[in-house]
Design goal:
The protein has 881 residues and is an alpha/beta fold. The chain is built from 27 helices and 29 strands. The chain is 43% helix and 17% strand. Strands 6-5-14-16 form a 4-stranded antiparallel β-sheet. Strand 5 and strand 6 form a beta hairpin. The chain starts with 13 loop residues before the first helix and ends with a helix. The mean pLDDT is 92.
Length: 881
């Protein structure tokens, strides 16, 4: 048998193993299989992106689930892919061109797109290689890109269907305009930040009178586009003025003073300026009163022509000039500090400018209702469920979705306009002639679709829709979506309503939200704080398994995770512990070739570890099914480190080195069996180290690769509850002995006798089965069970039903022993006080289940007996000082 290397070195095998998995086709799913399908679609990272910790945690969690289900007998498909990321990719291409002295406007659309494809081919796909370093087991043969021909066909198909259904329309609406990106963005692509701005109070003269109406605004530059001033119909200050005409300052336009329920009388002066082309609320008021439109700020955030000295000025420079002129005319009443939320572009942080613009929209009301009902009925489950409130609230307050973008990179709208009769034609391919007038003079809409329009189709477009492919039949709907909670609006909800509308069913039944990875101080990682962590650096320093295990073991659904290098080190130490334990086990197999064991040959410690293993298997299964992956990781960690490495291996060492060949063979067989189960259970979490150790297992107990293994399930015939309870009790006793010896500075190498004192024949019988365990791990040279104490000076550990005495002759410092007993007496006093208080509380004794109350009474009785015994021990030690 080949020998496991002495030192754990992940770099010596991680790349090799991944190559073997990938080239062997072990990630590929078979769409003709009879197995039940289990499908995950990867949230597509930007095609030109690089791996960051957000990708690392999200993809590690997906990989745990897909590896688990693959081992558990499912036909498991994990679809990878990337997103064309229209705004961010175009911005990067434009920046690259500008660095070369080329403006976007210098190129034709076709020339620019060729540059964008060059950029994508050069930098795209880097993240895939980085994901491979992490160990993801997605089916690379099914990799998708949102601009692939098949996915693009799905996008056009959906647009045309929804247009024909009247769900997609073109209209003049207020949109969020980013002057830097040069495009409209949707509401959820706007980040609102609280800022300290100014509130300006300005006087508007009343026509034909000496009086004024004062309004308050945070954006005086939009005054140029005012078409009315509105007040609340119930505001007594203005009732006599409603219907009068005002003179718009600086412009001298006559505008009405009107009443509208929208106005809050308590805000500012109670009178607000109405600028329908530059404010979404004003747009609604303007439509209600048929005010029309007046655009005064263009797409570059400059004042349009026709406004004298202000035309051509940037919006903020125009604000400054307008305020100066208002002040000079005596119309600027006051300037006050004002806290308000200001919208910024999610991509570039530029302040958003609300503009009236002709855009394409999706009608959302009819789509939102079934998406909400699916959650309310319980068909769609969110983990954790607290995100359900956010989900429902957003759908309840949804607005029509602006899907057109003034960009070149992306899916171009399949919309054509006849230049002779203005007919709008929606078609997948360019029509030869106008269907109305027959003209061949047709032009395609210049806009592209919002990136999220194509991403919303991801669960079924990646499987071949609109064609009825075998992949679509086998693997849709998918099983679970694993994603960050920060894109619940951007992506999750849009996939839900898109799938319900196009496919007639949900795209997935479960959504598992992972949190953000923050720095050790809880701050979001950013370039400005210089606190970013490169996952590839962590993999280089500690190995992929350590990073993966740290990310999973610290994860709870929906909660953010703080990144500490010390946690990665702890995960690496766990890998090292497993490596060393495995090496020890394998080195002790000797010439043994048969690793089967008979139940009748099992010794009590064998039965204990096998029982603990079955419980661990059950716990991991339950927690994985609940998406409590962090708890599941803790289950296998605790079992491996504490029970297998620290206890079982120690308990059987004497059998490995002893003369009893049958006992040794059984011990080795159980060690190999448990180690194999550990490797299978741990494989989804730490796939590289488990695969490498597995390859060293003896022939006859393994497949050729661990990735092909089946998932463990608990076996009732290997659960021995009574023997396990006895060993647990012995282990607790040994721990108490070790703690007591440590407190008294007695080194483990100093052996002593152990006397177990009890008059209970039942307890004596139970302890006799595991008597030798005390000797092996309790620093004992002999162990005896006695009916009563010998009277010699001894360190005493009180357990329920018996006492453990360690004779102290030549071993102990009596003052330290007194201090230890005193602390133990104080602890027991607190337990008695707690139990007595509980039993003295009628709310507890009358309302708690009878079994719980009885259990508490038994505890009190036990502690009272222990208290009497410890007082006796204290008196004895005091007598020796």
């Amino acid at each position: 048998m080949k020998e496991l290397k002495k030192t754990y070195d992940p770099h010596s095998f991680e790349d090799r193993i991944y190559r073997e998995w990938k080239e062997g086709g072990y990630f590929r799913a078979d769409n003709s299989s009879d197995k039940e399908a289990y499908t995950i679609v990867m949230p597509p990272p930007n095609v030109t992106g690089s791996l960051h910790l957000g990708h690392a945690i999200n993809n590690t969690l997906q990989d745990v689930l897909i590896r688990w289900k693959r081992m558990d007998g499912y036909e498991a498909l994990w679809v990878p892919g990337t997103d064309h990321a229209s705004i961010s990719t175009e911005a990067k291409v434009v920046a690259k061109l500008e660095s070369e002295g080329i403006q976007k406007t210098d190129l034709t659309r076709e020339e620019f797109l060729e540059k964008a494809w060059e950029w994508t081919r050069e930098y795209g796909g880097r993240i895939n290689g980085q994901l491979e370093k992490l160990g993801v087991s997605c089916d690379w043969s099914r990799e998708r890109f949102t601009l692939d021909e098949t996915l693009s066909d799905a996008v056009l198909e959906v647009f045309i269907r929804m247009y024909e259904e009247g769900l997609i329309y073109q209209g003049d609406r207020i949109v969020n305009w980013c002057s830097s990106c040069g495009t409209a963005v949707s509401d959820i692509e706007v980040e609102h930040e609280d800022e300290t701005g100014k509130l300006y109070t300005i006087k508007y003269p009343i026509k034909g009178e000496e009086g004024f109406i004062s309004i308050a605004t945070t954006r005086p530059e939009t005054l140029l586009g005012d078409l009315a001033v509105a007040v609340s119909p119930d505001d007594e200050r203005y009732i006599d003025h409603i219907g009068k005409t005002l003179i718009l300052p600086l412009v001298n336009r006559e505008i009405p003073l009107l009443a509208d329920e929208y106005v809050l009388a308590e805000f500012g002066t109670g009178a607000v300026k109405i600028t329908p082309s530059h404010d979404p609320n004003d747009f609604v008021v303007g439509e209600r009163h048929q005010l029309g439109q007046c655009v005064v700020i263009d797409t570059q955030a400059r004042i349009v022509e026709g406004y004298g000295p202000y035309s051509g000025l940037d919006r903020y420079e125009a604000r400054k000039r307008i305020l100066e002129d208002l002040n000079a005319q005596g119309l600027l009443v006051s300037i006050e500090d004002h806290q308000h939320a200001v919208g910024h572009c999610e991509r570039c942080s530029t302040t958003i400018e609300p503009l009236i613009s002709k855009q394409w929209f999706v009608k959302m009301e009819g789509l939102a209702k079934p998406a909400k009902e699916a959650y309310v009925r319980g068909d769609l489950k969110l983990h954790p469920d607290r995100f359900g409130k956010i989900y429902v609230n957003w759908l309840d307050n949804i607005k029509d979705w602006c899907i057109s973008r003034q960009l070149w990179w992306g899916h171009r709208l399949p919309v054509y306009y006849c230049q002779d009769c203005a007919k709008t034609i929606v078609s997948k391919t360019r029509p030869e002639n106008c269907p109305d007038c027959g003209s061949a003079a047709l032009g395609q809409d210049e806009d592209t679709l919002d990136t999220w329009f194509s991403s919303a189709l991801w669960p079924f477009s990646t499987l071949g829709w609109p064609e009825q492919t075998q992949d679509l039949k086998k693997f849709f709907p998918t099983s679970v979506l694993v994603t960050g909670y920060d894109i619940i609006f951007f992506w999750v909800i849009r996939m839900v309503f898109s799938s319900l509308h196009q496919m007639g069913e949900l795209p997935f039944k479960d959504v598992y939200f992972n949190g953000l990875v923050r720095d050790s101080q809880g701050r979001k990682m950013s370039k400005s704080l210089n606190n970013g962590i490169d996952p590839l650096d962590i993999i280089e320093d500690y190995g992929a398994d350590a990073l993966r295990f740290m990310l999973v073991s610290g994860n709870t659904p929906g909660n953010d995770l703080r990144f500490f290098t010390e946690k990665v080190e702890a995960a690496r130490n766990f890998a090292n512990k497993l490596w060393n334990a495995s090496r020890f086990v394998l080195m002790n197999t000797g010439e043994q070739s048969d690793f089967n064991f008979a139940v009748e040959d099992l010794e009590i410690e064998d039965k204990w570890i096998l029982t603990k293993l079955q419980k661990t298997i059950d716990s991991i299964q339950i927690n994985l099914e609940r998406y409590d992956l962090g708890i599941a990781a803790g289950n296998i960690y605790d079992f491996t480190w504490d029970e297998f490495c620290d206890w079982y291996i120690e308990l059987v060492k004497s059998r490995l080195y002893g003369e009893d060949a049958r006992s040794k063979q059984t011990a080795v067989s159980v060690l190999i069996y448990v180690l194999r189960e550990i490797l299978r259970l741990l494989h989804p979490f730490m796939p590289f180290i488990t695969e490498e150790i597995y390859s060293y297992l003896p022939e006859g107990v393994k497949e050729d690769l661990l990735i092909k293994e089946t998932w463990p399930h608990a076996q009732e015939e290997l659960s021995f509850s009574e023997e396990a309870r006895i060993v647990e009790d012995i282990i607790e006793g040994v721990k108490s002995i070790r703690n007591a010896r440590s407190e008294m500075d007695i080194p483990p190498s100093k052996k002593s006798a152990i006397h177990i004192v009890t008059q209970s024949s039942k307890v004596q019988q139970e302890l006799r089965e595991g008597l030798d365990l005390f000797r092996r791990v309790g620093s004992a040279d002999s162990v005896e069970i006695l009916d009563k104490e010998t009277g010699e000076e001894a360190l005493t550990v009180i357990k329920s039903g018996y006492r453990i005495l360690v004779p102290l002759a030549g071993l102990v410092d009596y003052q330290k022993e007194l201090d230890r007993l005193t602390k133990e007496r104080e602890r027991i006093e607190q337990e008695i006080k707690r139990a007595s208080g509980k039993l003295g509380n009628s709310s507890f004794t009358e309302k708690a289940p009878a079994a719980v109350v009885e259990q508490e009474r038994n505890k009190l009785e036990k502690y009272e007996k222990m208290f009497e015994e410890i007082l006796t021990n204290i008196q004895e030690v005091e007598g020796k000082l």
